[in-house]
Specification:
- Keywords: Signal, Virulence.
- It is a single chain.
- The protein is mainly β.
- Among the domains are: about 1-200, no CATH class; about 475-585, no CATH class; about 795-900, no CATH class; about 905-1209, Lipocalin (Beta Barrel), CATH 2.40.128.130.
- Strands 93-94-95-96-97-98-100-103-104-107-108-109 form a twelve-stranded antiparallel β-barrel. Strands 6-9-12-15-20-23-26-28-30-33 form a ten-stranded parallel β-sheet, with no helix packed on it. A nine-stranded parallel β-sheet has the order 24-27-29-31-34-36-38-41-44, with no helix packed on it.
- A hairpin with a 4-residue loop joins strand 103 and strand 104 (about 1125-1135).
């Protein structure tokens, strides 16, 4: 085998020097000459680049070879497969040489081999220094001939020469010969025996300066391309050992197992063993590098045997080195790889059909492709930088016991599994493709890349930490029982849908926020940890339990967890940002619920919530039993559906401003001190137990029942009506303030058990029954309207108390006492409107006797009315109290009429409606004599005006006045033909009326439509309008202690007007005098009142007519320029009502007596003034602001403003 030499420039010595091929090694095993030179075999004329460096020597002109780049390689002077060149002599003595590698022997025939060359002798290169001599190692020959069953071994390289007298260098060992060298392209090689590359020769030894390095081992098999089927053993030769002596030589590099030199494509099927040679040893120097198992480009390798790199410097060499092209590697059962896989360039396809584990690291700049239907598991730390593509099958990183790591982006069209063993692993590269990602390991994995894979994510175990909003790609995410999802940064927002199995833990760090817009589905549950805020905005359908261990779970928009099995809230549950509130199955825990202004509904309640509910929203329990064990501050309504229970226990309470609509069960029996409610309504039941229930607030009607033996307290100014059967209640009821009514007029069957105490500022009334005693220190009013209140026990009235009785011509209220009645204080009689004659009324009965008398009697009649000649008297019997109305002259028959009170509101509503109708007509007529600037060529206009006003009408003839606040709008469209105009308009007005003197009130909602026209006759404009309105009217008359008489009805109105105006120019002004007349007629239907018992009236129709001639003068001045003109107008006018202004309506009491309900009259004179400003923000648009006032010259005044927009088409 021949040697390869190069002449190199040594920068350190400033001279040319000779370097052997043995100094070069592409795996980086070269050594400096003080410890020897590493050798590599020469193969088939392949010329390797020399990487060396020169260092200063104690002997002048000596060059040492090092692993560096400070020497520049130039023209080679020898190549393999030829005899080594003889060293030249230039007068010096001594020198050194290195043995060359032997040539390969197999030429491509299957199973046979022949020698193809012999190792060349080492050369001597002499220097001028005297006494320097050396000998060289002999290169190994190729393997001997074989018939296919005999082992083939390349011949070992010769040993390096020693140093002559005064020599500086010992010779390097010869390179081992190749086991088989196939030089035929597309060869088909089959090996069932053992092929071994020759061993490298040992380096020369001496005692003086530098000893020789060991020779490189020979390649086991070298081929161009084609195929190789190996069931035997192919091994690279071992590197030679370094020489010893003055300094130690380095070991030679091991030979590669299989070296493929072509790039056309080679298929290797290995069921046997392919191994790189072992690096030569060195006694004190560096060991030679091991040979690689397989080296080449465009390889397709299927392995079920063993492929290993040789051991040596730096550990085990690569099992496989892919040097470029498109490669494939299939690992089958029994496959063993020792050493890394290097992908220098190109790609490698792992085409797996079964599950295989690769513990080797993958290095280089190339890429990895995973295909097939099997699973490839990587447990090494791979550093290849070309990226990873999963075309099919599964790539698994780690096996649970050992980590598997890769670098670079992943195109995942199959399945990527993370099953790491380390406590925390981060994968920051991007994952794309149509495949899925699985977190299978029990540890923590962080995905922080900008991922776009669409096949979904499975978190089967451990915790998956996301570092970006796209970390989970775009597909559905499935979490298994015990798995965790952690948000690794604040502000992350996920759009993925989720499938939950078992209970998964979602973690948001304290102070961080995160949101999920997708839906959470399936049978699993969610446990929130970490202390941060997680917001759900989707309509989630998962049915497992929601556990808030720490932090805040917030619902926003349409966010819902209604199908979750329940919420265990030990943190914060926040629904304040939802659109319409939230519904949950159950609520337990000790955390906080933040309602904001939204309602929370509990549909299948069970368990106790010991936390606090806050906000202005409300709580509904629609099923099951919900127990509240702590003080709650929410102020919205509390609703209990039929079949549901809301229980308060311990310190449990709801805010005193929160009313309860109880159609199920409200149970306060387990509380420490009871409960306070604003009000109570519904048809359910209240279990008081031995506690106290306080009703503190507004009006309410409760048709349900009370049970227990505790106490019921009615506080506040409101009225509480109890229409249900509370006969099972045996406690005490205290009416502390306001009104308690036991049974209204429609529920005389109502029952309240126990005793009732009426305090000084309170009233008890009703048509029902109280089973116990009644102690009256305030007011008892049987009925409320005329009716009977029954007391099952005794009745006691104190000296400061009042028994209030309502009397009509045909009946009177009555207090029926089944026990005894002890009387004192005041008897207050209210006479309803009607015609009275001599008669008797039984006001009180007591089955067990009447004792005492009322200390005084008061009567309430209509203003100015009396009982005439009828006199009232009381008769106290043993068991009753009777009121007698009789004439002072017993022989005469007298009739007394008691008129109703506070009836002027009926006429006030009609008067305000007519005045409003006339005002609408006036506003329309104001615009009809104006010829808009810029209207030339325009034939259509649209306009709208918004108005607001306050009108005060004083009382006349002793009747109260009223105030009317009104707002509305009017809009129209008109078209011009020459100087004529015709249009239509419509609008809406709302009026609120109030009579300060009586407390009565009313409302009007009017819908109006009008047509109008205008014609110019020279300088005079003639205009007119006709209109129709539909009015919805209502009025209320409150009576203290009795109720409010109210009624509503419909009215119709017709309006019309005619006007003449003549605009005139006057020194830059436009002066427009106008005269006209306007008419309005209102017919309002009759109606019946309700709500105040005997005070309710039947009200007749109301007919109002108004005719008002008027005159007005307007003065307008234009400012600005033609592009942005501003018009200012002032006006003053006067109208006169010429029809009868008196106002009265016929009403009748419940006994049919007719009365006239008079009200304040229509004003006669209307002196008005106003100012307006008009602007043109656009060429075709005019905006006007107006202020108008009605000056009080009669008994009415008003002021109002309007905004009007005109648009010319």
């Amino acid at each position: 085998m021949n040697h390869i030499y190069r002449i190199v420039w040594c920068a350190a010595a400033n001279a040319w020097r000779v370097a052997s091929e043995l100094a070069g090694n592409r795996r980086g095993n070269g050594l400096n000459s003080r410890t020897g030179v590493s050798a590599r075999p020469a193969m088939r004329g392949e010329v390797r680049g020399v990487r060396g460096a020169c260092v200063p020597s104690p002997l002048r002109g000596v060059c040492a070879v090092l692993m560096a780049a400070s020497c520049i390689a130039v023209t080679p002077i020898a190549r393999a497969d030829s005899t080594g060149g003889q060293g030249s002599s230039d007068g010096g003595v001594g020198g050194s040489g290195n043995g060359g590698g032997g040539g390969g022997g197999l030429t491509g025939a299957t199973g046979s081999a022949s020698a193809n060359g012999s190792g060349g002798d080492g050369s001597i290169f002499a220097y001028a220094s005297p006494g320097m001599t050396g000998t060289v190692g002999v290169g190994g020959a190729a393997g001997a001939s074989t018939t296919g069953s005999t082992a083939i071994t390349g011949q070992a390289g010769g040993a390096g020469g020693g140093v002559g007298s005064q020599g500086a260098f010992d010779g390097g060992g010869g390179g081992g010969g190749a086991g088989v060298d196939s030089t035929t392209a597309s060869a088909s090689l089959i090996n069932a025996t053992t092929v071994t590359g020759g061993a490298g020769g040992a380096g020369g030894s001496g005692t003086y300066e530098y000893n020789g390095g060991g020779g490189g081992g020979g390649v086991g098999l070298s081929m161009v391309d084609g195929s190789l089927t190996n069931s035997g053993t192919i091994a690279g030769g071992a590197g030679g050992n370094g020489g010893v002596g003055g300094s130690v030589g380095g070991g030679g590099g091991g030979g590669d197992g299989v070296d493929v030199t072509g790039t056309a494509g080679t298929v290797i099927v290995n069921t046997g063993t392919i191994a790189g040679g072992t690096g030569g040893s060195s006694d004190g120097g560096q060991q030679g590098g091991g040979g690689e198992g397989i080296v080449g480009a465009s390889l397709s390798i299927t392995n079920s045997g063993t492929i290993s790199g040789g051991s040596g410097l730096g550990g085990t060499a690569n099992a496989i080195e892919f040097t470029g092209g498109t490669n494939a590697l299939t690992l089958e059962t029994g496959s063993t790889l020792t050493g890394n896989i290097a992908i220098d360039a190109g790609s490698v396809l792992f085409n797996q059909t079964s599950a295989q584990t690769l513990s080797n690291a993958i290095t280089g700049a190339g890429s990895v492709i995973v295909g097939g239907t099997g699973t490839l598991t990587l447990t090494g730390v791979s550093t290849y930088t070309g990226g990873t593509t999963i075309d099919a099958g599964t790539l698994r990183l780690g096996d649970g016991a050992t980590d598997g790591q890769i670098a670079g982006a992943v195109v995942d069209n199959g399945t990527l599994v993370f099953d790491e063993a380390s406590a925390a692993t981060t994968f920051s590269s991007a994952i794309s493709g149509s495949g899925s990602v699985i977190q299978a390991g029990s540890q923590t994995l962080t995905l922080s890349g900008n991922n776009s894979y669409s096949g979904g994510t499975q978190i089967q175990s451990g915790t998956l930490v996301i570092g970006s909003s796209t970390a989970l790609g775009t597909g559905r995410v499935a979490l298994s029982d015990g798995a965790g999802l952690m948000f690794g940064a604040t502000g992350l927002s996920l759009a993925n849908d989720f499938t939950l199995s078992g209970v998964s833990t979602w973690t948001v760090a304290s102070g961080d926020t995160a949101s999920v817009a997708g839906t959470l589905a399936s049978t699993g549950g969610l446990a929130l940890a970490g202390g941060g805020t997680l917001t759900l905005t989707g309509a989630n359908t998962y049915t497992g339990t929601t556990t808030i261990g720490a932090g805040t779970l917030a619902l926003s928009g349409a966010g819902s967890i209604a199908q979750s099995a329940g919420v265990i809230d030990n943190g914060t549950f926040d629904i304040s940002a939802t659109t319409g509130g939230a519904s949950i199955t159950a609520l337990t825990g000790s955390g906080a619920v933040v309602l904001g202004a939204r309602p929370l509904s509990v549909t299948q309640a069970s368990g106790t919530f010991d936390g606090a509910i806050s906000g202005t929203g409300g709580l509904s329990v629609t099923g099951g039993t919900q127990t509240l064990g702590n003080a709650n501050s929410y102020s919205g309504a509390t609703t209990i559906a039929s079949g549901a229970t809301l229980a308060l226990s311990g310190q449990g309470s709801i805010a005193q401003t929160s009313g309860v609509a109880d159609n199920g069960v409200l149970d306060i029996s387990a509380t420490t001190v009871g409960a306070v409610l604003s009000n109570l309504s519904g048809t359910g039941s209240v279990s008081i137990g031995t506690r106290t229930l306080t009703l503190s607030g507004a009006d309410g009607v409760f048709s349900g029942s009370f049970t227990g033996s505790g106490k019921l307290i009615k506080q506040g100014a409101g009225a509480f009506i109890l229409d249900g059967d509370s006969s099972a209640y045996t406690g005490t009821t205290e009416v502390s303030a306001g009104l308690l009514e036991v049974g209204d007029a429609d529920n005389a069957q109502a029952v309240l058990g126990g005793d009732v105490d009426v305090d000084s500022d309170a009233t008890l009334r009703g048509h029902g029954t109280i089973l116990g005693d009644v102690s009256n220190d305030g007011t008892v009013a049987p009925g409320g309207s005329i009716g009977t209140l029954t007391i099952g026990g005794n009745y006691t009235q104190t000296a400061t108390a009042t028994l209030a009785i309502e009397v009509s011509p045909g009946a009177a209220s009555q207090l029926r006492v089944n026990g005894s009645a002890t009387l004192n204080g005041v008897l207050a009689i209210t006479y309803d409107p009607g015609t009275y004659t001599s008669t008797q009324y039984t006001l009180l009965t007591a089955s067990k006797g009447v004792s005492g008398q009322f200390s005084s009697t008061t009567s309430t009649l209509a203003s100015g009315a009396t009982l005439g000649t009828l006199e009232s008297s009381l008769t106290y019997g043993a068991n009753d109290v009777v009121l007698t109305l009789a004439s002072a002259a017993p022989t005469s028959v007298n009739v007394t009429v008691v008129a109703p009170t506070d009836t002027s509101i009926y006429t006030a509503v009609g008067t305000a409606t007519v005045m409003n109708a006339q005002g609408v007509t006036s506003a329309l007529m104001d615009r009809l004599d104006d010829r808009p600037a810029g209207a030339s060529g325009r034939n259509a206009s649209g306009w709208a005006v918004a108005t607001g006003a306050q009108t005060d009408v004083d009382g006349t003839d002793g009747r109260p006045g009223f105030q009317a606040n009104q707002y509305g709008f009017l809009a129209g469209f008109d078209r011009s033909v020459d100087d004529d105009l015709i249009g239509v308009a419509g609008g809406y007005q709302h009026i609120d009326l109030s009579e300060q003197a009586t407390g009565d009130s009313g409302t009007v909602d009017a819908l109006r439509g009008l047509i109008y026209a205008r014609r110019w006759l020279g300088p005079v404009s003639l205009a007119g309008t006709l209109g129709y309105g539909l009015d919805f009217m209502a009025q209320k008359r409150p009576f203290a202690g009795i109720g409010t008489a109210s009624g509503d009805h419909i009215g119709q109105e017709f309006t019309g007007a005619a006007q003449a105006g003549m605009p005139m120019g006057l020194a830059g002004f436009v002066l427009t005098p106008r005269i006209g007349v306007r008419y309005a007629w209102l017919h309002a239907n009759g109606f019946d009142e309700s709500g105040a018992g005997g005070q309710d009236l039947t009200v007749g129709t109301d007919n109002v007519r108004s005719l008002q001639p008027y005159a007005e003068v307007a003065l307008k001045r234009a400012f600005g320029d033609a592009f942005r003109p501003v018009d200012v107008q002032v006006r003053v006018g006067y109208a006169r009502e010429v029809l009868d202004g008196g106002r009265a309506i016929s009403v009748s009491s419940q006994d049919g007596t007719l009365f006239t309900a008079a009200g304040t009259s229509l004003p006669r004179g209307y002196l008005t003034a106003g100012i307006g400003i008009g602007m043109k923000p656009a060429k075709n648009c005019t905006v006007s602001l107006d202020y108008n006032a009605l000056i009080n010259t009669d008994h009415a005044s008003a002021q109002g403003g309007s905004v009007k927009v005109d648009w010319l088409f």
